[in-house]
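Problem 12. The chain below contains 183 residues. Write out its predicted structure in token notation.
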Amino acid sequence: MLVTFARSVLRAGPRKESRNMAENKNEAGGNGGPQPGEGAPGLQVVAQYVKDLSFENPGIGQQIQRPQIDLGVDLQARRASNPPDHFEVTLKLRVTAAQDNQPMFLLELAYCGLFQITGVPEEELQPLLLIECPRLIFPFARRIVADAVRDGGLPPLLIEPIDFAALYRAKMAEQAKARVATG
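Solution.
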């Protein structure tokens, strides 16, 4: 599924007709588009890192046939204290594998991205942080999971892509339902 956002979140400025560079320059010598700090929306990955990684392999030595794989996904986002336009998004993955009710392995990964977000209205921050940011860091977390399982002596586990937009919608629906129930 394709996730789309309001045009202002995706583009740094209005689309211009194709012209040569000399025609696009403004009097100050710039490129004619919004300059940094002029309210143009922006999303930049500042850093990515493993916050926590745990791999347990109690099933080593057992012949693996078709284990039951369970994947849990949790997302957390918080505003960094300094600078205020930085946000930390944590993608937590918990993978368990069992075969014949015997645990094969357990992997827990907390993978973080530090994002600089500018010019985005406050009401659009939450979907941006919980859909687009995890989508950007997921391929790196997926590779870490595959490598850790392989390094544990098992065939690499390739996690299917995750639809973060569907997760977000489900979470929002769950929260709305809880608000109605508490009335």
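Discussion. Residues 91 and 102 are 27 Å apart (CA to CA). Students who got a different answer should revisit the alignment rule from Section 12.3.
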